[in-house]
Amino acid sequence: MAGIKEVLIFLLAGISASISGGCSSGRSQPGNSNIIEIRGIYGSPNPFWNKGLNLNELNVNAVFLNWKGINEKLIERAESEGAEVFAEFPLLNGRDYVEKHPEAWAIDNNGEKVKPASWFMGVCPTEPGFRQFRMMELRGLLRKFNIGGVWLDYVHWHAQFEEPEPVLPETCFCENCIRTFEASAGIDVPDADIKKQALWILTNCDALWREWRCSVIADWVRDARMILKQEDPDALLGLYHCPWDDNDFDGARYRILGLDYNMLKEVTDVFSPMVYHGRMGRSPVWVKENIEWFCNALGTVSGSFPEVWPIVQSYNDPYQISPQEFEDVLSYGSGACSTGIMMFTSNSVAGSDEKTETLKRVYSRLMTNQ
Ligand SMILES: [Zn+2]
Question: What is the pTM of this model?
Fold first, then answer.
């Protein structure tokens, strides 16, 4: 069986040929029965394997899991069942790191060290030691295992968006951040205590500050991509990210998290919006609306990079996600311009015979659309 990358390259070649008037094969337009190449699971396949189920019989062809859970045996078995392995790599979450390296602790607009945003603890993204540490970890991962790609996770400034009531503090006003901002924007922030400097920035150069913050996040992705492509030019760089539109929470995706899709689409192969409807207090149909909005916002052309492979919720939190609801979000998530789909988590699906059957049935349908 051809690997996922080969399939992508083949399909992309087909599209460019059809645009230039050659071969007529290619992807259908968004909104039609788009081709779904990636039918993924998020989490270890072990919960399925422990039940005697193979990935190919579930119609799964991609496994996404935390990089620390990857090992050679897992890759070998997944590949033998027709599935490629991708590593989830947490970028800016690091409670352990800031506890050992207080210089990397993010600072809020009161000049205080930030508190954890529920379970998330964002590290200051401009602290040079942390950046070096994380990028070395990434290079180490890519040298150790031959994987299909890396999906960056927690790619945002300190905040929490995965809850119905998000935590959205103003950060980071540490010395590194203020100095880097001054150099980048070509301005001088008056000498004062941190609280006064933060107020001055937010009062006098709010737009420049927000834009600079987005550029810092895009730079992290650019650096990670450079390392990835140096180690394996064929590997894909994906992004798990907040799915909010431009209006949600008063534009907090751009304003607080620092995600500018125009910057990110230059350095990202695949976007995986985390459309966790249950966690975010939304209805299943919101997944459909959100992916349609996102495809439009990204301006992605069917059959070209960047691609969109959403991740939908099966996990029972804060309530039981029914098999029907799970089926709905899988279908909605694979609509519009999506060319892949995955769900959170493998454990939550394997733990329910009905959800396992749902996954198998929906993925079978997506396969036959090809
Ligand atoms: Zn900082």
Answer: 0.91
Is 327 a member of any domain?
A: yes
Distance 171 CA to ligand 1 centre (A): 7
Structure tokens at 119: 């379970």
Convert the pLDDT of each residue in 118-146 to its tens digit.
889 999 999 999 999 999 999 999 999 99
Alpha-carbon distance 259 to 263, whole Å?
A: 8
Check whether 22 has a pLDDT greater than 70: no
Chain segment 215-233, per-residue pLDDT in tens = 999 999 999 999 999 999 9
Residue 1 has pLDDT above 90, yes or no: no
Convert the pLDDT of each residue in 236-271 to its tens digit.
999 999 999 999 999 999 999 999 999 999 999 999
**Residue 146: half-sphere exposure toward Cβ, Cα within 13 Å:** 7
Query: What's the gap in Å between 225 CA and the centre of ligand 1?
Result: 22
**From the CA of 212, how far away is ligand 1's center (Å)?**
12
Residues 62 and 179 in one domain: no
* CB-neighbour burial class of residue 192 (10 A; exposed 0-12, middle 13-18, buried 19+): exposed
- 3-state class (DSSP) for residue 244: coil
| CA dist., res. 91 & res. 94, Å (int) | 8
Distance 108 CA to ligand 1 centre (A): 9
Total structural domains within the chain: 2
For 249, the 3-state DSSP assignment is helix
- Mean pLDDT over all residues of the chain? 91
pLDDT surpassing 50 at residue 346: yes
Exposed (0-12), middle (13-18) or buried (19+): which is 38, by Cβ within 10 Å?
Answer: buried
Domain span at residue 121 reads 91-268
What amino acid occupies position 152?
L
Considering the domain boundaries, does residue 194 fall inside one?
A: yes
